[in-house]
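User: quick one - fold this with 2-phosphoglycolic acid bound?
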Amino acid sequence: MTQRRPLIAGNWKMNCLRADGLALASGLAAKASEKGTLGCDILVCPPATLLSDVVGVTKDSAVGVGGQDCHAAVSGAHTGDIAAPMLADIGAGYVLVGHSERRADHGESSTDIRRKAIAAHDADLVAVVCVGETEQERDLGATLSVVNGQVAVSVPDGATAKNTVIAYEPVWAIGTGRTASVAEVAEVHTAIRAELVKRFADGNEFRILYGGSVKPSNAAELLALEDVDGALVGGASLKLEDFWKIIETCA
Ligand code: PGA
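Assistant: Sure. Structure tokens for the protein plus 2-phosphoglycolic acid:
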């Protein structure tokens, strides 16, 4: 069995003004430092306005920092967007690409997401490529074909287990309190693993996170699954105690 170090990632989305965000990040850094040896890597993805400050308060800790999105281009006339080298420049190490809220709110396609992942790699960032089916797609029995299709197109050929993490997030489980069942998660993660192994020499080493209403009460059973190598946590990552309990599941 391949040993993959889990990654517990917090996606703050469009939440937190400065005081709350910095309190959350510094509280997390303090807990991580106090604990010493951790059973997982920790990542927080704050809104762009807080990235630089969060890098500042976490820099001597085990807490990594990532952006929530990047543009595919390195610079240019793209008002409101952020380029991957800009994230790297302020000390971020990761970036989420293809979150379902970006796919839905901004019409991002898997092709767009592949371009963003390539931009992330070119800037030496780890791309966290998000995939997941809608409720309608699940009801139609199309979950595996949708998710495998998204992985096939969104993950670039240059991906490696070092520069890419996959996050499976069923859209119907995000922010709804409804978590996919252990059997549903296992089925999709196994299918993603098979695709990665088919395509990449180190496909067995990629971390595949589950996301969608992960909380302290369900983290342990999800993280115990063979191909679940961590979690992408939205709502519960905004509460220090809850996020920490999820991290401690990996201890
Ligand atoms: P949630 O969000 O944990 O609030 O469901 C997860 C995500 O969208 O990354």
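One thing worth noting: Residues 7-12+41-248 form a domain with the TIM Barrel fold (CATH 3.20.20.70).
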